Amino acid sequence: LAKTTQPISMDSYEGQEVNITCSHNNIATNDYITWYQQFPSQGPRFIIQGYKTKVTNEVASLFIPADRKSSTLSLPRVSLSDTAVYYCLVGGSGAGSYQLTFGKGTKLSVIP
Amino acid sequence: DTGVSQNPRHKITKRGQNVTFRCDPISEHNRLYWYRQTLGQGPEFLTYFQNEAQLEKSRLLSDRFSAERPKGSFSTLEIQRTEQGDSAIYLCASSLGAREGYEQYFGPGTRLTVT
Predict the structure, then answer these.
(1) How would you write the pLDDT of chain B (115 residues) with one tens digit per residue?
(2) Contact at CB, A102 and B99, closer than 8 angstroms
(3) Cys-Cys link to A44, which of A38, B37, B93, B95 (CB 3.0-4.6 A)?
(4) Are A99 and B106 inside 8 Å of each other by CB?
(5) Cα-Cα-Cα-Cα dihedral of B15, B16, B17, B23, to 10°?
(6) Cα(B84)–Cα(A36) distance, rounded to whole angstroms?
């Protein structure tokens, strides 16, 4: 499974757009990029997944450049409730267990 | 609510005792995972079931740990002769199938404290 590198922490004011970048230089051809969010005392929650270019859902956008060696999770107009740890994961989509390999994540603090 | 549920939510036990946790996945999900999370770290994979078959186990899962998923429904994780290092949050997750493998739905976890 490809190793990922992301900032340990980030601060943002309410209402701003937040971009969290993740590096995954040794991503394999079949690997997808997946982001999870975790609030204190809760299990992680799937946010978004992509393979290339851009993916958008009701919660976030995921930008993936052509070389796929990095990805950026974009959270529009964050609120205090977006304060959480965000994990970037990469892994293949072939046959297998799909076990998730989490790093330490990025702790996002939204300031009023 | 049809999410993943885990019981108990908290468990305090003395070193050397056995404990058992239960996970009820989303009903139509055939894949079930157990993870362990310690303070300040992301979850670590322990084991995986597809239906009732345990197909993968992490090296983290020592001989004191055993997991079952009878009939491919709920799952139990048992820890025998608990040690203080077993103190952690034990998370269960489930997913639907191959294509959605990385979209896993997590339960709230069971917090284990070994004294």
Answers:
(1) 579 999 999 999 999 999 999 999 999 899 999 999 999 999 999 999 999 999 888 888 889 999 999 988 999 999 999 999 999 999 999 988 665 557 889 999 999 999 9
(2) no
(3) A38
(4) no
(5) 80
(6) 29
